[in-house]
Design a protein that fits this description.
CATH superfamily of chain A: Winged helix-like DNA-binding domain superfamily/Winged helix DNA-binding domain
Number of helices of chain A: 5
Organism (chains A, B): Spirosoma flavum
Shape of chain A: globular
Distance between the termini of chain A: 31 Å
CATH class of chain A: Mainly Alpha
Pfam families (chains A, B): HTH_20 (PF12840)
CATH topology of chain A: Arc Repressor Mutant, subunit A
Structural class of chain A: alpha+beta
Number of strands of chain A: 3
Strand content of chain A: 5-15%
Number of domains of chain A: 1
CATH architecture of chain A: Orthogonal Bundle
Oligomer: homodimer
Protein name (chains A, B): ArsR/SmtB family transcription factor
Keywords (chains A, B): DNA-binding, Transcription, Transcription regulation
Strand order of the largest sheet of chain A: 1-3-2
Largest interface: A-B, 25 and 25 residues
Helix content of chain A: 40-55%
Chain lengths: 109, 109
């Protein structure tokens, strides 16, 4: 079973978090995850990019500490680390999600 | 006299703003500008990068709408567009500045 590495909250870097959120596809994915509130299979959220590209995006989000990925059987399940992000950088993640203008998030690739 | 182009507030893009703030040198510069509060000559804030590199960073910040640059005589003066950013993406810029951990902003290059 694949084990994913995650930074601890004290390893979060503000610039890494901002970089991870600065891509429209990643920001859209995170917003959908926030709307759904519970843990989701990685493929459950429709994205406009190829699976391999999305794997890269998920890695960037995971390594920044924005999402947690765990395996259960043959599935990879994804959840936001919202509480940890909010504790580490108060207001940043929440205000970014509030500011997301769906019209800004163009479909790419 | 060089004229700089600036996006209007309704042209600001959230992902461009996040990208502009996701670099340690740029984030450090913006934080210094916020501390100084008033308009500053572009070279007044010490940065750990070459002048040409800083010109690139200033362009990224200007094109994202984070700073305004105007020329006065032989000087270029820089100021934050904080109020416009706050109006367009409430809480984002302010919470990022509050979250800046000086220890995270390593000197680069």
């Amino acid at each position: 079973m694949k084990q994913y590495q995650h930074p601890t909250a004290d390893q979060f870097s503000l610039t890494c978090v901002l970089h991870a959120l600065s891509d429209p596809v990643r920001l859209n994915y995170v917003q959908c995850l926030a709307t759904l509130t519970c843990e989701q299979p990685c493929g459950a959220i429709a994205t406009p990019v190829a699976k391999s590209t999305m794997s890269h995006h998920l890695r960037v989000l995971r390594e920044a500490g924005i999402i947690r990925i765990r395996t259960e059987g043959t599935h990879s399940l994804t959840s936001l680390r919202w509480d940890e992000l909010e504790a580490r950088f108060p207001g940043v993640f929440t205000s970014v999600l509030k500011a997301v203008d769906k019209n800004v998030l163009v479909e790419e690739e």
